[in-house]
Specification:
Elements lengths: L15 E6 L5 E4 H6 L3 E5 L9 E7 H7 L8 E6 L5 E5 H5 L2 E6 L2 E2 L9 E3 L12 E7 L18
Parallel strand pairs: 1-10
Antiparallel strand pairs: 1-2, 3-4, 4-7, 5-6, 5-10, 7-8, 7-9
């Protein structure tokens, strides 16, 4: 599903993001935690996009994943949108370099642009930039049927 409708209740004060799955210490964090803790910036545009790059702020996925102490066998992750019909799978090494953004150009990300939490993966196709992120499942195998974007993901993810 390429085009999802924005959620009707995307209040950053109540939004949480969970990292769980093949980890020793699952965690849930608020948007404020993502904005304040280990903040990083990224100027990015979609692969092939001609629009000017914008500055996105948030926390590195690798930082959050490391806090959960992933299993030694963990190799992949599935990033879930609030849209129950959309999730995108990634190799864990690739996902570690991604940003869970909560601000764009020093402002909260508008809901229609994927806020309050949007995934930005370096050198990603636009469909891999998951909007309205609610959960990251760390996996010991490549994602299967739960990866609704799987028909758009190269086989080597």
């Amino acid at each position: 599903m390429l085009h999802s409708e924005p959620p009707t209740d995307a209040d950053p004060d109540r939004w949480t993001l969970t990292v769980d799955g093949a980890v020793a210490d699952p965690l849930s964090v608020s948007v404020a935690d993502l904005a304040a803790d280990d903040a990083m910036r990224s100027s990015t545009a979609c692969t092939g996009e001609t629009a000017a790059a914008q500055t996105w702020q948030g926390i590195g996925v690798g930082t959050l994943v490391d806090r959960t102490v992933p299993d030694a066998a963990a190799t992949h992750a599935l990033v879930h949108s609030v849209d129950p019909e959309y999730a995108c799978g990634f190799a864990l090494d690739r996902l570690r370099a991604a940003l869970l953004a909560v601000r764009v150009d020093d402002e909260p990300i508008p809901t229609e642009r994927g806020g309050p939490v949007r995934l930005l993966v370096p050198d990603a196709d636009c469909w891999e930039r998951v909007k309205w992120v609610t959960r990251v499942d760390v996996l010991t195998d490549p994602p299967g049927e739960a990866d609704t974007a799987r028909d758009r993901v190269p086989a080597d993810v």
